[in-house]
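In practice, a research group might receive sequence data for several interacting partners and want a quick structural hypothesis before committing to experiments. The following worked case mirrors that situation: the sequences arrive first, and a predicted assembly follows.
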Amino acid sequence: MEAMYAFFMDKAGMGQAGAHVTVAAIMATLMFIVMALCALVFTWMERKVAAFLQSRWGPMRTGRWQGWAQAVADMLKILGKEDIIPAEADKALFIFAPLLVLLGSLLAWAAIPWAPGFVAADLDLGLFYIFAVSSMVIIGILMAGWASNNKWALYGAARGAAQMVSYEIPLALAAIPVVMYTGSLNTQDIVIAQQGGIWNWFIFRNPFLFVSFFLYFVASIAETNRGPFDMPETESELVAGYHTEYTGMRFAFFFLSEYANLFLVSMIAVLLFLGGWWAPIPGLDFLPAALTFVIKGVLMVFLNMWVRWTLPRVRVDQLMHLCWKVMIPAALICTVGAGLWMMASGAAG
Amino acid sequence: MAIEATNGKKGWGDQDQVPGIKSELLELNMGPQHPATHGVLRLLLHTDGEIVYKVTPVLGYLHRCAEKIAEGVDYKQWVVYTDRFDYLAPMTCNHTYVTAVEKLGGIEVPARAEHLRIATAELSRVASHLIALATFGLDMGAWTPLLYCFREREEILNLLERISGGRMLYNYMVPGGVRYDLPRDNWVADVLEFVTMMEKKKLPDYNTLLTYNKIFIERTSDVGIITREDAFAYGCTGPVLRGSGVKWDCRRDDPYSLYHKFDFEIPVGMGEMGTVGDCWDRYIVRVREIEQSCRLIRQALEQLPEGPYQSIELKKPVRVPAGAAFTRTETAKGELGHYIVADGGQKPFRNKVRSCSMCNLQVLEKIGVGLMVSDLVATVGSLDIVLGEIDR
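A structural hypothesis for the assembly, expressed as tokens:
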């Protein structure tokens, strides 16, 4: 980042403002490309993982090797679909909703530290910012369900809003012990605090953080609306939930944002608990930091997919029960426990 | 909650619950195009949010006038229409019809044919129960068991294709026997190998993956409870009746074919995970019936006698004297009945079918009240209806 600023200010002869705008534009473009790419890669990966778990092959033909081009073909197909807006729909909201959903997941990417010093927005409130902007997805989903003027979509939206609002709480609470240890909300600081091999990762620091990781993981599945918590979609109950009426590119936006969100929460899990860009053992230090980070993120995504394709779905009231009566108390206990542990071990400054 | 409301106490569904705010029940059409309704069933729901106040099944989307057609075709020709009743287990439907014709005409069936009938019908039952497990899991959002069950079903379809020539609609049984003898390869050995694999490997797999899964038990136990009395009152049969703890099976209690010669048990719901007659009980009855069917198949094929497999030559038409006959058999979904009135000659005067899926579906009106929408989907899945047989 410093190098980029220096390049634009000195070599290209821009002022400070010009350099900032240019760098921001470059980073934004980069993030969007990464997001679009990850949606492509993960749709393919999901098909292959699902196929592997279900003892079948998955896509094998498009693009010769393991059907790698299937996701590209799907995207092209979806671009060619007719864009239908139901006659009774609220047109403005209907059009705006997918954009808002996409925006919510896109904005959060700005604060992800890919490598030392390489973060689009080095915010002191980075973690707070991520949780805040990713909440915008809820508004988008509610908007989509309402605007579609379809009963199934409305059901999906109501369930989705209830679920995501609820699960924001354990999601954020599970991150608090980490913040306590680091003493900072800055995402880079959190990763730097975990330097030095696998036992310095926050997940293994103490038992409460270990539990926090699993709380975070479960809450993140609910947050991304994926099985076994895919209440807003529940294809066997609500047809397709909040995006029942969406077609073509607007549907693709929801799709894109689902996978972007999936990768996002996996990346946050990595940066909070799994040591960010640090290699697990010293022997793996030769890998570039960003690559280590991405590999860990993809492994988390794989874990997500594994869970999704193995477990049945919970019911909507059981989901709420799990959140309010199990996970939030557990997260609170973890927060207090981690604090006491810090005091006992003298880690608290 | 909702049951209380329908019993006269006030609930959110009542219009004047909150003064000044008009509220009404949401009318929701689940189906005929809906992923969870197992075909073209339409459920008209009145819901208050997630709670269902009233369920009205709307039928008739798959009506094909099969009973009327029976009056225009001769006895052998109508077997193909019975294939299309319960298209997931056509052999069992064939079996009901041919036993009715045989009873009416006093037609003898060779022992070899009876053994082949039992073997194929039980294979069909396993195939149908596999679909039931698969789609029930799918209704819960478990995708993977679906693929596993279809993988095993594929094996059954291959085996039945080898003996009958058809993969889905077999037209295998004819009045007086079966259409073809065993294929001239090691069909029996292959079936026995499949049956062993099913018992030893596949069923334990399903149990680990789905049956004893915590989420699955949470979703299905104490949901959609059909009491013994309700089951009797609505005329439920098959796994739905046995799930409610009633030990009734046509194969044992009203024996037809050669079932009385074989040794098998009748699994019933025991309320292991909740109340007797809940969705989990109906599910586990099907799982255990697969085991029993496997036992039956093994016995039928190991004791397969030599001899003829048809008592009437295939090309000769069946003639029955005037009269009426009713037979019922245990199909995969329940008791299928055929009432045939004949006026002598090659065609029946009237052929009335008693559909088990239809009776099983009726009970939904009673037990669906007060369920959540998700539970309703689970309950419909656990009834394991097939629309081809309801509408005929």
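Before designing any experiment, note the following. Residues 86-345 of chain A form one domain. The first helix of chain A runs from residue 2 to 11.
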